[in-house]
Amino acid sequence: MSTYLYELPTTGSVSFGDFCVDGTASNAYASHIAEATQARANLRGVLKVTKRTDTDGKDYLRLIKVLDDYLPYLHGIMACVVSGDIRLKSEPKFSWRTTLSAHLFHTSPRIALASLHADLASSLLTYAFALSNFARVTVASLGSYEHDRAISEIERKAKDEKLNFAVTLLCRASGIFTHMSEKVLMDWDKAGEGASGRPPDLSKEVNAALAKMALADAQTLAIRKFLSKSAYDSVVSPGPPLPKSHPSIPLIFKFHLECVSLYSSARALAMTPSSARPSSPSSNPDSNAEVCVELRRYLADASAFHTALAHKWLGVDAGESAVHEKGGEAVAWLLWAKKELEDMKEGGLGISVGRDREKRGRKGRVADELESVGVFLKHYKKINDSLTFQPVPKQQDLQARIPTGILAVHAKPYTPPSPAFGPGSIEYARLQTEALALEEDDSSGDEAVASIASPRTYAGAGSYF
């Protein structure tokens, strides 16, 4: 299954000079304020171009670089406001389009958000979206390389590395979403502005959900890489017997089970804001909106798909076991997986998400897995009917045997960049170090003058007998 495609927001123009006043005697930050305005204008321009560009032509890497340039300036202004070096003569307002809210006409309304915290949160959200979409584009460029008979071992390993790069991007995105939920939005609350006027995009619950979803997407790709070599070796004869290159089966179903847990938790969190949001009136009409149905459906479909795959590999594990008593259990697991995949295929789960290409991709993936399950089921059922003769347990009995999942990857914690200027910046630290050095030199000079003026330092100095 392909990872989720985020619709990127756009933002209105802002001049920091309209509300930022340099409070230093030498106007030390006037040029930096102008540079911050230019960096944000660059961000706005790239977002507008990205919005108008077709999906295949969107340059997510350029957007990531522009955000890397802007965020240090924004942190610099926020640090100077806290220290008092920059004064706000009016409340800053930033307009952003919301892209995760559910709307009747599927539009992305522009909303005005007050405070610098709002722009930081919206910029970081866009950053995480861009990383996720960049990972998606990277994976799409690989194709089904592990099933290509003509690919060489060197080429396959090179594509494995690209797949691993996409995993890293999603782990970074998960770290940013977590930072949003646990730090940025909390700081926004502490600044005196509650959650009543914010869209779901900027709620702590939704960002916690997106962190779990990004991590689950990363784990999905990690599973694919884990199976890459064995998938290539099984192209000619899929199903049992498994190739020697096949990795640990218990690890596979535990990885899938962890994906189920992450996607299910993410969906529960994503549906929280509509009931947890305060009922106080707000000037923002989007503040009481729900998360868009596409995101909720994606999470439900992904959870169902990984559940079926976990059951498939639990069946394969039982079938490949040397214990004859597990012959019936293998058949039971695979019958369960087959039913779940058939329900997905007939019900069209995941088919309505995205464009035609993604629809065909999801349909094909479910169909491929259904065919794979059929091959394993036919093999293990034949063995059980002719050799092991074990009873096929009921689904309720299998439910109690499902283990807990494990993580194959971990989110990469987000570290905010150093401010481009002001407290916390490299320049600020250098100036402080130079000032301290000058003070030490002045202090050493004063001590030398004092010693010359008062040379009597020995006992009895100045005493005459």
What can you tell me about this protein's structure?
This protein is mostly helical and 465 residues long. It has helices at 30-52, 60-83, 116-140, 153-190, 204-226, 228-233, 249-270, 273-276, 293-320, 327-347, 356-388, 395-399, 426-453, and strands at residues 20-22, 86-88, 93-97, 110-114. The strands form two sheets. It has a two-stranded antiparallel sheet with strand order 1-2. The chain has a two-stranded antiparallel ribbon with strand order 3-4. Helix 1 packs antiparallel against helix 2, helix 2 runs antiparallel to helix 3 (116-140) and helix 5 (204-226) runs antiparallel to helix 7 (249-270). It is elongated and about 95 Å long. Mean pLDDT is 88; it is low at 274-281 and 350-356.
